[in-house]
Design brief:
heterodimer, A: 341 residues, alpha/beta, nine-stranded mixed sheet, four-stranded parallel sheet, 13 helices, B: 101 residues, mainly beta, five-stranded antiparallel sheet, four-stranded antiparallel sheet, 0% helix, globular
Chain lengths: 341, 101
């Protein structure tokens, strides 16, 4: 099922509700859906739509415009060198690149078709008539480049079917309260940034983007926007804990904080448990290749550790339980199944 | 009709629309309000009505038959009850998960 069907449902349910916010700019579900069709016209004839930039409205607009055009969306790390970006884009064929500033200029000089992020967002705000949503669930929705620890970055292929089944299998449609808001500070080229966008959109939770992570800014935004949910990576968690240590009012609306993307040091976790006693903490474990989360250590496990019970404290280093929609197999050296669940 | 995953079906009697999430191997007839559902691109008869007492599908809910390996996702709410070969399709229970994203 094409990802655009998910957005189409959100627009049918609460079309005038703000779904994404970045600074003072917002998009309602209807605006995002119409923007996808306007963006699709810009992408006509391209083999892929790439986005090189921080969290901003161009990210969801680019994703859904690519889905409407039936071409892959490729979010790239804007911290890569111009040469590295060029080498990743080159094999993809005729790519519409949405990028701003010096990176955009360098990629245009290298012969790529570049549109500035602001121009792209403005073009997506033009009137557009919805077309036929592409039906191929096997089509590539997103190419996500992993960091390439051992060699050049490699692309994980996420198909429309992978992502939409993850969302409809794990998120209850429109179940969030109207006042709910999720603060997103993981970058758009990380699978958590992508999963986050789709899950919150489908749950009916307003997404508030931080352009780039900064702990002071994160806490200030959480207060100002009355943030109820957030997802961070371990290094962010440690810096947020430092800011909250010196902050008496804290983040009063926050109900749920999930973390993942790398192993979190136990010392950081135990500090956070004490600093945020009312918050439901969740460790989300997954891989880029698995379309995000496959196992979670839930709030009850974190609460149990608050009393200092040694077994419960030790369990904080676990990735928790496998999601009911996931099958796991442990294989021996000869690749035979040794255990299955 | 033989269904395939991703296929859209419209009600012939109300606004309901569903997407096939899981398709059974064998052909089945999906009905809404007692009348077979039609392919996304077919026109419906505007004068048609739904039977009294029908409970139509709700937006975002899944309707499934484990036995047949059938699962539908409601993408537009309607007033006619969803059924497969005459049997009303129940809502598939949600699996509550802690918010991880």
């Amino acid at each position: 099922m094409n990802l655009l069907v998910l957005l189409d449902m959100v627009a049918a349910g609460r079309g005038d509700a703000v779904v994404v916010q970045s600074g003072d700019e917002t998009l309602t579900a209807n605006e995002l859906l119409e923007g996808a069709w306007a963006g699709q016209k810009l992408a006509a004839g391209a083999d892929a739509l790439a986005y090189v930039g921080p969290n901003a409205l161009a990210f969801p607009l680019g994703l859904f415009a690519a889905a409407a055009a039936g071409i892959p969306f490729v979010p790239l790390n804007y911290r890569l060198s111009d040469q590295q970006l060029h080498e990743l884009l080159e094999p993809l064929g005729n790519v519409l690149v949405v990028a701003e500033g010096p990176v955009g200029a360098a990629l245009a000089d290298a012969g790529h078709d570049v549109t500035g992020a602001d121009d792209f967002v403005a073009a997506c705000r033009a009137d557009a008539t919805p077309g036929e949503i592409p039906g191929d669930a096997e089509a590539t929705a997103v190419l996500l480049y992993t960091s390439g620890t051992t060699s050049a970055p490699k692309a994980a292929v996420l198909r429309h079917g992978n992502l939409s089944s993850y969302v409809i299998g794990t998120v209850e449609f429109a179940a969030a309260d109207e006042a709910d808001a999720s603060l997103v500070s993981v970058p758009p080229y990380h699978v958590a940034g992508l999963a986050n966008l789709l899950s919150n959109l489908y749950a009916g939770r307003r997404i508030v983007y931080l352009r780039q992570f900064d702990a002071e800014e994160w806490v200030a935004t959480a207060k100002r926007e009355q943030i109820t949910n957030a997802m961070v990576v371990p290094t962010m968690l440690a810096r947020i804990a430092d800011v909250l240590d010196a902050d008496e009012t804290g983040v009063p609306n926050l109900r749920s904080l999930s973390y993942g993307g790398a192993r979190t040091p136990s010392t950081v976790l135990q500090r956070v448990i004490k600093l945020l006693p009312e918050v439901n903490l969740t460790n989300a474990y997954g891989l880029t290749e698995t379309s995000s989360t496959i196992a979670v250590l839930g709030p009850d496990d974190h609460r149990a550790a608050r009393g200092g019970d040694p077994v419960a404290v030790q369990r904080l280093s676990s990735v928790g339980r496998v999601l009911p929609t996931v099958e796991v197999e442990v294989r021996d050296d000869a690749r035979h199944a040794a255990a299955r669940r | 009709m033989e269904l395939k995953a991703g296929q859209r079906l419209n009600s012939a009697v109300c606004d309901a629309q569903v997407v096939v999430v899981k398709a059974p191997a064998d052909a089945v007839e999906i009905q809404c309000g007692g009348v077979p559902m039609i392919d996304g691109d077919q026109e419906r008869d505007a004068s048609a009505t739904t039977p009294d007492g029908d409970e139509g599908p709700a937006l975002g809910k899944r309707y499934a038959s484990e036995e047949l390996g059938l699962e539908l996702l409601c993408t537009r709410a309607g007033s006619g009850a969803l059924a497969v070969d005459g049997e009303v399709l129940p809502i598939k229970g949600a699996k509550p998960l802690p918010a991880s994203d």
